[in-house]
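Standup notes, structure subgroup. Blocker cleared on the zinc ion input:
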Amino acid sequence: MWNKWQQTQPIATRILQNSLAKERLAHALLFHGQPLAIQLELARTVIQAKLCRTPGARPCGMCSTCQRIMSGNHPDVITIEADGASIKKDQIQQLQHDLSQTSFETDEQFYILVAAETMTIQAANSLLKFLEEPTGKQTAFLLVSNPTKVLPTILSRVQILQLLPPNQQQRLTEMVHQGLDEQRAFYANVLTADYERLYQLVGDEEFRKMIKDLELYLEQLEVQKQAPVIAQITIEKWCQKRQSALEIIALLVAVYEHAFHQRQQPIVTISEKIQTQLDRQACQQRLQQLVKLEKNLRANALVTLALTSYHIALMNGSEA
Ligand SMILES: [Zn+2]
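Run returned:
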């Protein structure tokens, strides 16, 4: 059961396995840095390791205890999720009440707060009293998307484990798995590593328009073979500010790299069309020119001028 975590989260896994081996698991742990669903799976794996009674490497993941923990059906493991937008005081009070009952199957109890940063101040204060005076053998897992929103008084009472952010490919696969638009997920993934912003971008109307224009531009330039300086007009309005121009460059780099490596990803982007139009040499030429363009922009060249010289360079390159 730990194999997968050893590969994807070597640091956190080592810390957790060490404290489990020494029977010194903190009474309150806070995870962040990965999507909540992944954090939940890790928290449940730790609990399995504590409760699984199968001899050998624990947890086995197969026994009834392990299975009920993973599916959220073990009576000594309570998972609390936000009621609406927040975790409310009465949810924490109910939790405290439930935990005051003796545990059902074991002498230990576990509770998991999903998106713990959404606790209202009142809820956080109730939890705080509880964290200060644990009433028995209880272990808390606080799963958090945004640790800056957690009260410092709570942060000071938990062991914080930062999980490694997923790599681009993992994130993309996850987003597509969750039913998000593949194309937009592909591009959003280029612009940010931050989960919240990633999901915001994919749903953002302006972003959708920008991607549409970017793909139109690529089609004009690479498929219809329009003059580069003419195709340029299509993306110009998204390049008014230096920062947005740099974003457009990052997106173009991603597309050309994608085409260059002929990646066999299940992504229906214009880059598939481009892929049939562009050979590796052409991709390389564009990538080299994009590096120059980015350098110029960072050196404070006027955006429109820099963009024009990029497209003139493409034109000269294709004639050569
Ligand atoms: Zn087991």
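Discussed briefly. The chain has a mean pLDDT of 87.
Next: hand off to the docking folks.
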